[in-house]
Design brief:
Helix content is 33%, strand content 20%. By secondary structure, the chain is α+β, with helices and mostly antiparallel strands. The chain has three domains: 91 residues, Phosphorylase Kinase, domain 1; 185 residues, Transferase(Phosphotransferase) domain 1 (Transferase(Phosphotransferase), domain 1, Orthogonal Bundle), CATH 1.10.510.10; 143 residues, Kinase associated domain 1, KA1 (TATA-Binding Protein), CATH 3.30.310. Strand 1 and strand 2 form a beta hairpin. The radius of gyration is 23 Å and the shape is globular. Belongs to the protein kinase superfamily. CAMK Ser/Thr protein kinase family. SNF1 subfamily. Keywords: ATP-binding, Kinase, Manganese, Nucleotide-binding, Serine/threonine-protein kinase, Transferase. Its cofactor is Mn(2+).
């Protein structure tokens, strides 16, 4: 259990309950780390006695861009449920602070361990297998981390790896019409060469590159691309200039050369990694890329169709009108609904709702993009606007329909969604409700 401090410096007294715990739930312990905008504390859940980590962010210290990253991190972490990814338990907020309550990794950062000396190939393989399991899972969910490094890999009490810090992650929604991401981000020594070219990049392929750098660091004890001069280091990365130390096995050297291949089109993929001789040596435990709890749920007819993701408790809280997470961050007082987005609950099946959207797109001559598990996007032929429509299963009988403007003119979004498509979906909802009452 953590050593309990009486009142940490950034503890918000307005959130202190009669039992002295934060929001009546968490007893804060020692400081684990701090940065320019946040502090992380070890804490204890007074109801379950479970250890957690709480990241406390001061709203006064963050700008619009950082706020956007925080919102994205919450959106991403709530859809991830994997044994090698740090779990987000809940998000709390006061007038001045935001509190991330996450799984506590007792072993700390992987970086601190490798800083003491390189690992054996067997231990490196164990962590690399767990890393690839987590990364492959993220990619299957349309999530690209974009800042993988040993500092963002934590170790739990059982010695297993946990990927953390999704603040710079990207979603499939951010991919442009050229099929690529364009935001320049990441830690210099771990960025892929295609990011440096500024011509756009595939999020999955840059994550694989970073995994290659991590594997090199674990087994060599130092970075493959390093130079006191940042531009000189970037030049080495761009050209793929690195050397494997003599003590590495030939199979490992071959894998590293495929991971750190400068051409993203011919760089090794997750599926190919799974079949690599070095990766498979000693036997490979089940590598799971899909979350069974969030699989497509058949409707009453037994069809899976588009499917709808089951919502966990955190999702339900974040979708609740009284506890809409957007209100935790928006200092202007604008709600999700006022920010060209809307959610409503329906008794209609996901298949029927998305069928209505599909028929609407045909009639209105809109481009329709189907996104596995999540829903669809409607794009005007000239690219004037993009509307996203997602369906989530709340219970066996209820679903949440979420729509928002993802690009383009607000007036066009209002006309197409609020004046035309939304009424059609609500009619289906009313018909389903009437049918259900008979």
């Amino acid at each position: 259990m953590p050593e309990i401090e009486h009142v940490p410096a950034d503890y918000d007294s307005n959130c202190k309950a009669a039992n002295g715990a934060l929001f009546g739930k968490y007893e804060l312990g020692k400081l684990l780390g701090c940065g320019a905008f946040a502090k992380v504390y070890h804490a204890r859940d007074v109801r379950t006695n479970q250890s957690v980590a709480i990241k406390i962010i001061s709203k006064k210290k963050i700008n619009v861009n950082l706020m956007s990253n925080i919102k994205r991190e919450i959106s991403i972490m709530r859809r991830l449920n994997h044994r090698h990814i740090v779990k987000l338990h809940e998000v709390l907020a006061s007038k001045t602070k935001i509190y991330f309550v996450v799984e506590f990794a007792k072993g700390g950062e992987l970086f601190a361990r490798v800083a003491k000396g390189r690992f054996s190939e067997d231990l490196s393989r164990k962590y690399f297998q767990q890393l690839i399991s987590a990364v492959g899972y993220c990619h299957s969910r349309g999530v690209y981390h974009r800042d993988l490094k040993p500092e963002n890999l934590l170790i739990d009490e059982n010695g297993n790896l946990k990927v953390s810090d999704f603040g710079l992650s990207a979603l499939t929604d951010q991919i442009r019409t050229d099929g690529l991401l364009h935001t320049l981000c990441g830690t210099p020594a771990y960025v892929a060469p295609e990011i440096l070219s500024k011509k756009g990049y595939d999020g999955a392929k840059v994550d694989i590159w970073s995994c290659g750098v991590i594997l090199f660091v674990l087994t060599a004890g130092y970075l493959p691309f390093n130079d006191p001069n940042l531009m000189a280091m970037y030049k080495k990365i761009y050209k793929g200039e690195f050397r494997c130390p003599k003590w590495m096995s030939n199979d490992l050297k071959r894998l590293l050369n495929r991971l750190l291949h400068i051409n993203p089109n011919t760089r090794i993929t997750v599926d190919q990694i799974l079949g690599d001789p070095w990766f498979r040596r000693g036997g490979v435990k089940e590598i799971k890329f899909h979350d069974d709890e969030n699989a497509a749920v058949p409707d009453k007819t037994g069809k899976e169709g588009f499917g709808a993701r089951n919502l966990n408790a955190f999702d339900i809280i974040s979708f609740s009108s009284g506890l809409d997470l957007s209100g935790l961050f928006d200092t202007s007082g604008n709600s999700f609904e006022n920010n060209t987005g809307e959610r409503f609950i329906s008794r209609e099946s996901p298949d029927n709702l998305l069928e209505t959207v599909t028929e609407f797109a045909k009639v209105e001559k809109l481009r329709l993009k189907t996104k596995k598990e999540w829903g669809v996007e409607l794009e005007e032929q000239n690219g004037n606007f993009i509307i996203g429509v997602d369906v989530y299963r709340l219970t066996e009988e209820l679903v949440v329909v979420e729509a928002n403007r993802r690009a383009g003119d607000t007036a066009c979004y209002t006309e197409v969604w609020k004046s035309n498509l939304r009424p059609q979906l609500l009619v289906r909802q009313q018909e389903a409700s009437v049918s259900g009452n008979h």
